[in-house]
Structures are given as structure tokens and as C-alpha cells.
Amino acid sequence: MSLKLNTLKSTEGSRKEKHRKGRGHAAGKGKQAGKGQSGQKKRGTVRPGFEGGQNPLFRRLPKIGFNNVNKIEYQVISLGKLDSTFKDGEKVTIEKLYDNRLVRRRTMPIKLLSSGQLTKKLFIEVNASSKSAQEAVEKLGGKIELV
């Protein structure tokens, strides 16, 4: 017997037929179709947190705090970490920072801070930097490019 695509069949019992619920008594899963008694959950879904008309928990509790949607959160990186990771005269891009695991997320912007000591001339690409970090890099002949 030769094996051809048009003669392939699944083995007996490997595929179970789907049971259609709610198609009458004779079909096996009729009347309530395995949904229990005739209540609200049988007729449709109830949204999460719904307490049957009672004032729900999220409305009983007071509102707390403030969420500033315009605030930009940066991943911070120090000059000291750049000094220990990169060679003299090297270009530090955002991709290289990810590859060397100095920053974790690709989506968050990166800010350079002046903590630590920089001894090498580096050309750095970041989203933001502090004035003191920019002065320290430029003092050694490097450059910071804001992307």
C-alpha cells in the first residue's frame, strides 16, 4: 500500500465528534443544556464584579490617589555602568544597551544620570540625560545625542 495525501485518514477513535447542546431531549443534552436551573447565568453572561443590583464593592470603596497620565517614566542608566561595559571611543546605542542588559524594556525611554565615574570617551544615544551627565561626557570629548 502506497502512502498518498488523498488516502490519509486519522486513526479510529482519535477524533471525537463535537456534541451540539440544546437541540432537544433526543439529542442527549436538551432542555437546560448542562447549564443548571433557569437563572441569570443560563441566559447570558454577567459582568465581573456584578452583585445582583447591590451597590458593588468598587463603588462602595473610596477613590484613593492620583495617576498622572502625562508623566514620562524613564529607565535610568549611570555613567559608571557605561564606563565598565563599553570601550574607549565606542558608540553606545539603545540597541547595545539592551544587548548588554543595562536596560530591561525596549518600550520605555532611557535617561542617563551622572552617578559613577566616567573615564572613557563615548558617543551615547539616549532619550534624555541630566545636565551633569552631559557635562561629564563632553569634558572627556564624547557626545550625547538625544533620540
From TrEMBL:
Keyword list, A-Z: Ribonucleoprotein, Ribosomal protein, RNA-binding, rRNA-binding
Domain (Large ribosomal subunit protein uL15/eL18) spans 76-145
Comp. bias regions, Basic residues: 16-28
Q: Which GO terms describe its cellular component?
A: ribosome
Among InterPro entries, the record links this protein to: Ribosomal_uL15 (IPR030878), Ribosomal_uL15/eL18 (IPR021131), Ribosomal_uL15/eL18_sf (IPR036227), Ribosomal_uL15_bac-type (IPR005749)
Annotated spans, Disordered: 1-54
Report the sequence similarity comment from the record. Belongs to the universal ribosomal protein uL15 family.
Please state what the protein is called: Large ribosomal subunit protein uL15
- What species is given as this protein's source? Mesomycoplasma molare
